[in-house]
Amino acid sequence: MGTTFGDLLRKHRRHGKLTQEELAEGSGVSVRAISDMERGRAKGPQRRTVEALAAVLELDRDESDALVAAAKEGRVRRQPAVAPCALPPDVTDLTGREPELAALTEAAGAGTTSVVVVHGPPGAGKTALAVRAGYLLGPKFADGCFFFDLRGMDARPVLPTEVVHRMLLALGVEHPPPGEAERSDLYRELLRSRSTLIVLDNAADEAQVRPLLATGLGSLVLVTSRQVLGGLEAVARLGLDVLERDDSVALLGAIAGRSRVAAEDAAAREVARLCGHLPLALRIAGNRLAGRPKWTVAHLAGQLADERRRLTALTAGDLQVRTAFEMSYRQLDGKAALLFRRLSLAPGATVTPELAAVAAGVDRYAAEDTLEDLVDMSLLDSADTPGRYAFHDLVRVFAGERLAREEPDHDDTRRRVVSWLLGTAVAAAGFFGPEARTEPAGPLRGRADADAWLSAESGNWLGALRWAAAHGLHREVLDLATAVHWYSDQRGTGDTWVEVFTAGVSAARALGSVRDEAVQLNFLTWTLSVLLRRPHEALALHDEAWRAAVAAGDVVEQGWAMHYRSASEMRSGDLGAARESAARAQELFRSAEFRLGEQISLSCLGLVLHGLRRYEEAVRVHRRLVAEVRSGVLDVAPALVDEMLASLLVRVADSLVELERWPEVLAASSEALAHSVAATAPATTYDARYLRGLALHRLGDPVGARAELTGAADLATARRDYRVGAMFEELADVHDELGDPDAAGECRSRAAESRSADR
Questions:
Q1: How many Cβ atoms are within 10 Å of 233's Cβ, its own excluded?
Q2: How confident is the model at residue 443 (pLDDT cuts 50, 70, 90)?
Q3: CA distances from 683 to 402, 493, 645, 721 (A)
Q4: Average pLDDT over residues 509-522
Q5: Is the Cβ–Cβ distance between 490 and 530 less than 8 Å?
Q6: Angle, to 10 degrees, between the axis of helix 279-291 and the axis of helix 297-305?
Q7: How many Cβ atoms from other residues are within 10 Å of residue 266's Cβ?
Q8: Which of 14, 278, 367, 709: disulfide with 731, CB 3.0–4.6 Å?
Q9: Are 164 and 239 in contact (CB under 8 A)?
Q10: What is the C-alpha to C-alpha distance for residues 541 and 365, in angstroms, rounded to an integer?
Q11: Could you tell me the pLDDT band of residue 341, with boundaries at 50, 70 and 90?
């Protein structure tokens, strides 16, 4: 390559024992410019620059002439066509990425060569983050910042050898070696002595990136990819997620106008939600608003509301959300593409490998492997709960589009998914109630598994129920609504069970079964009265339930109808009528020889006595029932025995509270808590903890009371129970006693919020 201007300049500077800083100070040429000259990045400086340097270096005429000639040769041989590998323009409105920029800044200051992988779904803003990091951190690297788009989603991604060749040219190697191995060796050798920031954007896989990694003096290699690139040894991996809600609205405002967006805050938040808080979608939405100044934000929200048109609406010029997703979809093999499409059939927000296997028609382990592949491709995400997977909202819409286009006749697949969900829910519900199953059912090994499945999969089986009800699968709907009754006694929310049992009523009527109609109407009456505390609505529904039970000639259902009438009358304040209805329910159950019904209706009578302030009688009734349950006269599953004992002992403790017999309250509630935990009965558990907290507080143990009341309030809040206000009020008094007025004030605020919500 011959002696270059940089070689001569370095030689003379070192001979004169000058640093680059000293040479810069004397000549008026910047340190960066001198560094670029010596490294060959600036091969032919202008004559006046050369003369200024020569004067400080005190060169003789021959040396000065030689330096001028070398500079002239550099100008002649300069190749302006060489791509400089410069950063693309910065995105000035980058929003909500401060934590990621902080992590990259930390990696840049590590002092050794670092590799950082930024991965995330299409449209998350990986390139924008990398470019901002390049502008922010580039000055920290003495030998420059270099940007390469690896075009990983293209049919022909950029080859590593192409990047090596361009990098050599950018480093001043005018005639790179002809052999690939020699060029790679030279690439690594040059980077070893340099401090650089190299941005490798849009990488396809590890094989594309690995040849471009080289050690250096405090260098940073920043790789962006839709894949996790788990095979690379990286000091950090930044998974780029969607934006927070406020950041999403801020990005819309930065593009469309802050005052315009602030004027329609609710509509802007809805647009952000419908965009899934994905930066690309938000940018497109903002651009559409900016390009249509007469539109309201609410108008755009209306356009995005139709899921079938949402991806089409998210188009602005050459920016399209759909195109970004399609690029990743084209990278999938056949089995991954099929599973990806069919996951859109899952009714809930998350899926398990078991559900994915049903949808794809493969075994569980094959489904799990493919799910992990989709996570690596950033087309799917791991959910907060281990073993579950979640779509981004817009990716789900795209998957549904691909399913409709590539598998237009997918009704059989959907029915298979719905049937599996409903069938598994029925099997799981079978572990609860008087005749609870004890043997395993498919993947459910017992009651704990069933409880966990019904809770975790509630979005899926409830969505399956809705679809089945809308498409005439009445028997499947009725089977589920019938199966979950005992489960609903302690779990889920009242709103859920109103929907389920309303669907059950409709299914029974569609099937022409008057008895099943009576059953479902009774379940619905119970939900309205007991769970939602809407007794007047429950009483109105009771008449329908009673007529259906009479028409069916089913005495047991007549007993249930009268029992739920009693519960509703009690909650509406008509205690005299409630007492009569409870007695009548007992008679009906007795005539049908249904001992469990007798017990339950007698317990309702005990509650009525409590309401009438006849607390001693209420205690006697419930203690008598406790003794009967303990005697084993009821032929019910052991788990239900625990559940019944827990409920009855809570009622004993409730009445003892009114009598202020605090040691007995503590004993009864403690035993109730043990039984409720054994039965995994959450509603009774927080009742028992609340009563224990009351007793401990009155018995002079505020620390113990605080623990119990906090646990009770947390559980009750999760179920939106009406008693949570009283729990927080009591907890506030405990905090006052313990000298914590701030905590007491917070509890009173939460109590007020709870009571306001109840109204």
A1: 8
A2: confident
A3: 44, 11, 13, 9
A4: 97
A5: no
A6: 130
A7: 10
A8: 709
A9: no
A10: 48
A11: very high
- Name the range with the highest mean pLDDT among 238-242, 338-342, 441-445, 490-494: 338-342
Q: Read off the tokens for 246.
A: 């406020």
Task: Among 86-95, 434-443, 690-699, name the most confident range.
Answer: 690-699
Task: Report, as an integer, the average pLDDT of 77-87.
Answer: 57
The number of beta carbons lying within 10 Å of the beta carbon of residue 348 is 18
Conformational region of residue 512, where left means phi above 0, alpha means psi within -120 to 50, and beta covers everything else: left
- How far apart CA 476 and CA 507 sit, in angstroms, is 9
Q: What is the CA radius of gyration of the chain?
A: 36
Give residue 80's pLDDT.
41
Q: 320 pairs with which residues across the strands?
A: 315
CA distances from 246 to 119, 165, 215, 425, 541 (A): 23, 44, 41, 38, 44
- Would you state the structure tokens that stand for residue 405, as one six-digit string? 């286009």
Q: What percent of the chain stands above pLDDT 90?
A: 67
Q: Which helix (H) or strand (E) holds 566?
A: helix 555-572
Q: Show the beta-strand stretches assigned E in 37-126.
A: 114-119
Element holding 225 (H helix, E strand): strand 220-225
Question: Is the pLDDT score of 640 beyond 70?
Answer: yes
Residue carrying the six token digits 């799990």: 368
The two beta strands, 114-119 and 236-239, are parallel
Residue 115 dihedral angles phi and psi, to the nearest 5°: -115, 125
CB 164 within 8 A of CB 183: yes
- DSSP alpha helices (H): ranges in 364-513? 364-376, 393-406, 411-429, 447-456, 458-470, 474-483, 485-488, 494-511
Q: H helices within 612-661, ranges in order?
A: 615-631, 638-658
Dist. CA 204–CA 156, nearest whole Å: 10
Confidence (pLDDT) at 82: 40
Structure tokens at 124: 């998350």
**The Cα angle at residue 647 between residues 641 and 653, in degrees rounded to 5:** 130
DSSP-based three-state secondary structure for 437: coil
Hey, what are 322's tokens?
A: 């759909």
- The structure tokens 């940018």 sit at 283
**Contact in structure between 329 and 402 (CB atoms under 8 Å):** yes
Identify the residue whose tokens are 């593009």.
255
Q: How confident is the model at residue 1 (pLDDT cuts 50, 70, 90)?
A: very low
Contact 673, 707 (CB under 8 A): no
d(CA 300, CA 286): 10
Q: SS3 for 625? A: helix
Q: Rounded to the nearest 5 degrees, what angle is found at the Cα of 503, between the Cα atoms of 416 and 476? A: 30
Phi-psi region of 58 (alpha: psi -120 to 50; beta: other; left: phi over 0): left
